Amino acid sequence: MKTCPYCSTPIEEYWSYCRNCNKPLITNLEDALDRNVRFPYDRQEIYHLDMDEETNKYEATVIEDEEIDQKIKEIDETLKRNELLGESVPGSLLLEKSSLYYKKRDLPKALKNLELALKNFKEDNDLLNVAICHNELGIIHEDNGFFDQAIYHFNNSLELLNKLKDNHKIIKVLNNLGNIYFLIKDLEQSYNFYQEAFQLSQKEKLILEEIKSSSNLVEVLYLLKDYERIKRILAKNAEFFKDNDDIYGIIQTYIKYGKLHYIIGDDYNESHQYLTKALELINKISENISVYIKAKLEWECFLYLGKIYRLWDNITTGENFLLQSLEAVRIFEIGDNIQEGEILENLAELYISKGDIERALEYYDLSCEIFYKFGDNSKNAELKFKIGKIYLEFEEDLSQAIKFIEEALAIYEDLNYIKDCAIIYHKLGDIYLLKGMTDMAITNFESAIKYYQNIQDDYSAKLLNEKIKSLKY
Hints:
This protein has helices spanning about 65-85, 90-105, 105-125, 125-145, 145-165, 165-185, 185-205, 205-225, 225-245, 245-265, 270-285, 290-310, 315-330, 340-355, 355-375, 375-395, 400-415, 420-435, 440-455, 460-470, and strands at about 1-5, 10. It has about 475 residues and is mostly helical. It has a domain at about 1-30. Helix 5 (about 145-165) runs antiparallel to helix 6.
């Protein structure tokens, strides 16, 4: 008899989903799959640690809120009985209760119960469960956007697991650390943690963890433009997904393949085909997965299809896909999130091409707020500079243009982004010159020259020197 690739319980050939863990199986979907798939994809996966590795209490499966509420009620009744009898509260029950609240996406209650569980496990000197609690706390703080707190808890979990020599769980926490550093744009740290998880998986011959770690590593390699290594990793992963009848892996393959073609820019038609196939397959399994999981699979398909249609000058269709992407992200995330900022930026760019400047400014401003909240200062500065240029070029509002451009400059100077500072001082000089404020223009040009000299751009520095001379005499 075959076994489920997710929970390893026996399954029947004709089942479309596992009766134990509710995850969809590739059975009966063979006709929908192209066996030449090469590039599997997984958006950076978060890794929960459970006492029982065969089950994952935090996994969002097909489960009704009523059933979750009933389980919480049963736990509460047990806790009350313990209190009446003067017995200690089992940390395991608090951990389970937290996981149920996490499924409901009630993060404050999940956090509260995790903190209580952590306190109990510390009192019992239960190091393994202390490590588990730290990891889960890290995940919740990541969901809330408190990345420093998340890193603190992941590091605590990793330290304890290293003492326990639990390599299986160590790999998961390494991936979680890689995810956090990826979100805060520290690519070097993110790469190191993913690579360490990947190498440890290979050493321990944990093929599933190797596949997951390498899939996470791919996201960093995109930004490093190491496309050949991406192809090698994903070709190996694709074989694993097919051999294990992993429907999620196949879907993610189509998404990654579509994303790869878009980023390289070699064939937008191929990109479109793979993203469309992914959506078709998601729809086929939609009855067997939660709305939450469906949205997590769909959002990036919609995002890149929106970008493609914008490139094809089909603005209406592009707008529709981007709005669907925004809706999907708001389903699976709590409050504002970094993905929403990316989508809002793309919508703003679409409205610029549509000539709807007012709406473009609105979406750029919303995107700015989100990137600021999540500490992506360089992106915040980039968007403020774009907003300033829009006020200059489309609204002819010099005061607003200067306001946003100077805000961008202040951020770049704090970040010590020398090239960007040079460009902005140069731009401000031109704007003040346009307003007839020659002295202010010269002051900004002179600041630009200093920055150009720092990056050894002697050509630009020389041109500005000549420009200043012409203004003085």
